[in-house]
């Protein structure tokens, strides 16, 4: 089968959406299909170097990258905070024009729009007239307004985002038409699924956007050696919506009898504020900030802690949850958005998102629960590890292909091309 994969973000050397985009090229290839991947020219050097080293000549012969460019002035505006919206929309237009020409000679069987996984901008490729799969998509979730005090740039990061989102979904006909024409739309949380259904989608399925390489998963559940203190881990980008101060506030409410130490892994704008945030809360001696780490070291960090404590206020899901579960870590988090929908109840303590005071207190009690009941901690870790094994890239692609065969009449995606 001939598959057109739209992956604006696609880079095998990076994580996040770029890694997701590239992973889908490999999954389609592994199932025997020929792939044309549309992406940006600035990914070209990394992609071609990686392909030469890691993909067989036979695989490279069936994997075609089409580097879709935008005008220089659009590239220039990309550096502006909201310039990404314009850049992405123009790129989508250019990708549609390129796909229309290529369709005349290739004859695609299926189109998969993979990245960006953004409901607000969807895809122009519905215009090609071929069976269309969109997603996984996020973007329907919003930061709870009662937690506005944790987002000092609320107007810029939340009010403006939400306004642009509403304008795009109401005014961009490509959003509505792509959702209505798609045979299948995959979403990463219930909030996004509800918006997709309201736009007229024919079939919607919850589906994680991130997956794990099989090499990341230990062959057996990793049992940790007992330690004198509860070793907590926070990992992510240090930006306001990830709400690290919310976690720090919770740690100040943990009972004095509980010995704990928090490791922070990640970097970003909030990093400059971190020493003062710790000093104000009296946590300087109980927190270690390690900055950004290479992927191999990150895996080891997961394996040397006792619980993963993460309370992002806005996230489609957060891939680090899956990584933590893959390493057998129990989760302490908020009961909303993708974390609510995908993390198994028996793998986590998910606290209500009500008011800051109540949520902070509930997070503190969850830390105490993990310390007081190591047997529960172990059971949560095992439940998360079992779930993570169902989310390896091969397992995920197999499930998606089954969904496509149900949604697309006469599809042969599971049959080797």
TrEMBL record:
<dbReference type="InterPro" id="IPR001296">
    <property type="entry name" value="Glyco_trans_1"/>
</dbReference>
<dbReference type="InterPro" id="IPR050194">
    <property type="entry name" value="Glycosyltransferase_grp1"/>
</dbReference>
<dbReference type="Pfam" id="PF00534">
    <property type="entry name" value="Glycos_transf_1"/>
</dbReference>
<protein>
    <submittedName>
        <fullName>Glycosyltransferase family 4 protein</fullName>
    </submittedName>
</protein>
<feature type="domain" description="Glycosyl transferase family 1">
    <location>
        <begin position="224"/>
        <end position="385"/>
    </location>
</feature>
<dbReference type="GO" id="GO:0016757">
    <property type="term" value="F:glycosyltransferase activity"/>
</dbReference>
């Amino acid at each position: 089968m001939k598959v057109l994969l739209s992956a604006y973000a696609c880079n095998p050397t990076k994580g996040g959406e770029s890694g997701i985009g590239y992973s889908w090229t490999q999954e389609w290839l592994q199932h025997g299909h020929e792939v044309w991947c549309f992406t940006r020219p600035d990914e070209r050097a990394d992609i071609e170097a990686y392909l030469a080293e890691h993909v067989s000549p036979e695989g490279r012969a069936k994997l075609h990258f089409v580097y879709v460019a935008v005008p220089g002035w659009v590239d220039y505006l990309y550096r502006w905070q909201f310039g990404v919206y314009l850049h992405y929309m123009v790129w989508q237009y250019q990708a549609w024009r390129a796909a229309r020409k290529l369709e005349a000679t290739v004859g695609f069987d299926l189109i998969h729009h993979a990245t960006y996984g953004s409901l607000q901008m969807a895809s122009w490729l519905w215009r090609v007239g071929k069976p269309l799969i969109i997603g996984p998509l996020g973007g329907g979730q919003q930061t709870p307004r009662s937690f506005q005090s944790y987002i000092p740039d609320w107007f810029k990061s939340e009010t403006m985002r939400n306004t642009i989102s509403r304008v795009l979904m109401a005014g961009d006909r490509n959003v509505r038409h792509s959702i209505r024409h798609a045979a299948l739309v995959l979403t990463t949380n219930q909030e996004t699924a509800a918006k997709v259904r309201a736009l007229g989608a024919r079939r919607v399925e919850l589906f994680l956007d991130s997956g794990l390489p099989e090499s990341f998963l230990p062959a057996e559940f990793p049992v940790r050696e007992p330690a004198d203190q509860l070793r907590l881990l926070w990992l992510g980008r240090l930006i306001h919506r990830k709400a690290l101060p919310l976690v720090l506030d919770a740690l100040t409410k943990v009972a004095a009898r509980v010995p704990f130490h928090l490791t922070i892994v990640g970097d970003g704008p909030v990093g400059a504020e971190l020493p003062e945030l710790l000093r104000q809360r009296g946590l300087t001696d109980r927190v270690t900030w390690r900055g950004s780490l290479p992927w191999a070291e990150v895996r080891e960090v997961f394996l040397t802690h006792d619980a993963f404590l993460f309370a992002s206020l806005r996230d489609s899901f957060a891939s680090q949850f899956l990584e933590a579960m893959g390493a057998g870590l129990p989760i302490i988090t908020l009961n909303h958005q993708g974390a609510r929908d995908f993390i198994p109840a028996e793998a986590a303590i998910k606290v209500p998102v009500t008011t800051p005071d109540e949520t902070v207190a509930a997070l503190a009690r969850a830390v105490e629960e993990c310390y007081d009941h190591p047997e529960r901690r172990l059971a949560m870790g095992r439940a998360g590890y079992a779930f993570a094994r169902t989310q390896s890239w091969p397992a995920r692609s197999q499930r998606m292909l089954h969904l496509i065969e149900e949604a697309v009449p006469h599809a042969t995606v599971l049959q080797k091309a």
